[in-house]
Write a structure and sequence with these properties.
By secondary structure, the chain is of the alpha/beta class. It folds into two domains: 161 residues, 3-Layer(aba) Sandwich (Rossmann fold), CATH 3.40.50; 216 residues, no CATH class. Strands 1-10-2-9-6-3 form a six-stranded parallel β-sheet.
């Protein structure tokens, strides 16, 4: 149930980027949205666009600004009778070429600092200096409903364009995760938990999903699940893998032994501090299913005899790992393995759609797409690919 019309008119990351690129020279867009889902990355996305080659990217973290002195200083004019405001070089107004300025978390600035940037937002000017006419200015902030102090004045809203950023879909996030080397376990976990790709405003029941941030809830965890926290959790899992690998190289690792238990305890505690206790314990339960999963070598050497995980969650984890590991050596044996009767149509569809997500590496796609079994399966199941 949709509880707030703000989210009814929300747009995706890519759609908002397109509008900033097309409208940003004339109108300053203020992007509001749930915390932790990619607003702060918008400047980087714009900077990668060929049309903005040669632009200087200016990132302003508004939470670090305390007053107007962070944006300009005052000096006397040459006649000694007047004074001028001189903008901070951080803003890029002194540069000869065009800039893209992003005021991140603008709703959290103290009033004095906020007032200092209004003219830049409204007129592309500060004091006597103007931005290059091709420059773009935009800002981001959290939803006012999140209770994080993001309250924009009505006159400011009227002079800009306020837009809403929506949480990405599962497939959008997985596409990003593949491109950014997110740990395969996190991708598998995300694929099994559709509800994490939602905003609290999407749910009538307060605190329906305790691992997600809901300002209406009485007991709010210190940490919660967002795109940002899952990226951080990926680093935690990669660190665990490196520790286990180092222990195996040193000959000190024993499955189920004290060292593994120690590292898993540290892993759990790290996850609690990253995604909160509910998600952390769910992840650990899922993580321990990895013992059901055959190795890559087992599948390559004996695709008809390699064990098939019994639980759907473990099969999902295996499929996520395979999508990440795909190459020509694995493609043939994997398709033989996947077509065995113990895999469900849903399992097969999960793999097939995983090869078609936006951003799936071309090299990996070519490796599997050249396989005859994959081609036959894709032809029969062409409806899955739109």
């Amino acid at each position: 149930m949709q509880l707030n019309t703000v989210m009814q008119y929300a747009d995706s990351h890519d759609d908002l980027i397109e509008d900033i690129a097309d409208l940003g020279r004339e109108i300053s867009l203020i992007i509001q949205g749930p915390m932790g889902w990619g607003k702060s990355a918008m400047l980087h996305t714009l900077g990668e666009m060929p049309r903005f080659k040669g632009y200087t990217l200016v990132y302003i973290d508004c939470t670090t600004k305390s007053d107007s002195g962070d944006f300009f200083m005052i000096k006397y004019g040459e006649d000694g009778k007047t004074f001028l405001t001189v903008p901070h070089e951080e803003l890029g107004l002194h540069l000869e070429g065009p800039v893209i300025i992003m005021f991140d978390e603008i709703g959290k600035m103290p009033r004095s600092a906020f007032n200092a940037v209004l003219r830049i937002l409204y007129e592309r000017k500060s004091g006597t200096m103007s931005l290059h006419p091709d420059s773009i200015v935009f800002a981001t902030t959290n939803l006012a409903a999140e209770g994080l102090g993001d309250l924009l004045p009505p006159h400011g809203i009227n002079r800009c364009q306020v837009r809403t950023y929506k949480v990405p879909t599962k497939m959008e996030w997985l596409s990003w995760a593949v491109r950014n080397s997110i740990h395969t376990f996190l991708m598998s976990y995300a694929n099994q938990n559709d509800h994490i790709f939602s905003c609290f405003l999407d749910h009538e029941e307060i605190g329906k999903y305790p691992e997600l941030y809901d300002p209406r809830a009485v007991n709010k965890p210190v940490a919660c699940v967002t795109g940002r926290s899952m990226e951080n959790a990926s680093h935690v899992f990669h660190a665990y893998d490196r520790r286990i690998e180092a222990a195996m190289d040193a000959g000190t690792y024993q499955q189920g032994g004290d060292l593994e238990k120690k590292y898993q305890r540290v892993l759990l505690n790290g996850l609690v501090g990253t995604v909160g206790p509910v998600a952390a314990n769910n992840m650990m339960t899922y993580f321990k299913m990895q013992g059901e999963i055959p190795t890559r070598d087992q599948i390559i050497q004996n695709p008809m005899g390699a064990p098939i995980p019994k639980s759907g969650a473990a099969r999902c984890l295996l499929i996520s790992r395979t999508l990440n590991d795909m190459d020509r050596e694995l493609a043939g044996p994997w398709m033989t393995y996947l077509m065995r009767g113990d895999f469900t149509k849903v399992d097969q569809a999960l793999f097939g759609m995983g090869t078609r997500v936006k951003g799936y590496p071309d090299k990996k796609l070519r490796a599997v797409a050249g396989n005859t079994q994959y081609q036959k399966w894709a032809e029969v199941n062409s409806h899955l690919f739109g």
